[in-house]
Amino acid sequence: MNTNKEMIRNLTTVRGIKCWGAHIGIKSMRRDLALIYSEVPASAACTFTQNEVVAEPVKLSREHIKSGKAQLIVCNAGNANACTGEQGRLAAEAMAQSAAEELGIEKELVIVASTGLIGEPFPTDDVVSGIRENMAKLSNDAKAGSFAANAILTTDTFAKEGFMDFDLNGTNINIAGISKGSGMIHPNMATMLGFIVCDLAIEPKLLNKAVKECVDMSFNMITVDGDTSTNDMVAVLCNGMAGNEMIKSEKDEGYQLFRNRLEEMMVHLAKLIISDGEGASKFIEYQVVGAPSDKMARTLVREISDSTLVKAAMFGRDPNWGRIVCAAGNAGVPFDYANVDLHLGDNETLIQVLDKGKPAEFDRNHVKRLLRESHLRIRLDMNAGEGQGVGWGADLTTDYVMFNSVYTT
Question: Is pTM beyond 0.85 here?
Fold first, then answer.
């Protein structure tokens, strides 16, 4: 990821991408309208929430993405436009229609997203006016990309951005992304919102396959509080303006390279979300190795990382391995704890606390000192195969409970 402070590279570094982020009054002080525009129609793919309660922009964007093409992402923050009925449906339609009219494109090429409070009447007139007033401000200046990254935030404490480039047979490819999420984060599609743009040329169906696979390895492997939002969405646009030969098959040279970079970008953005978890004091990486399959390993990671008792133990710096084993046993997959090795620690040091299902000899006070660190690791080895999985989560703190007990007041 780019860390060069002297040269800001973000969404607008990608060829043909213009952005803007504005304050239109939904939120009291922060930017609350983001625009991400491709100068040409792009191959596009999305994943959406699996919650049965679905926000109106998600319903609309599910229809629009069926063509495999998109040219604009428009997103408001501060109001989720969820549980808003017919008024909300018309509002989402109005967002797409007004944006399309200002750009002179088909409304089906507009992906609509919203985030914020659920069940609040949607301020359609204000949002539509904001879209019309700010479309002319679209820019490929780096600050415009940063404005967009800030305009999708709700309870987040910082903007989440990423950029990388790579060489594909002599062609420079740029890929950049932004995401938002702090609470209501659970691995059942994505997180809250993630938008990624790239100037690679790739067929829509192949892009869709890559996006779904990469989401499973990144956004689907994080959790803060076990709640999947009504508005979760990850959208990826590839506009082909780098000029590479169109990638049409998994066997085409360059497909696997792109897929790996896309996964790397998604993992980067997903980790940023966990590092900003509401009330969180620790970033925890969960590793399961030696499983019969990768799928089983990821299932165990999800179950352990979402355990309230495991998260509370990590907050309390308690090396209570019994909670971890208990969580793994609840995953709904075969799990023989008598064959398991378990290690706990920080980024630098792992201490074995379980040896083939039996308590290992370890200095409890030393482990408790390691668990004071802000970045922790839990590594479980099933000793039953080559499968492995990794995921990320936060601890459960008193600050989280206090924040969410007064969120709407």
Answer: yes
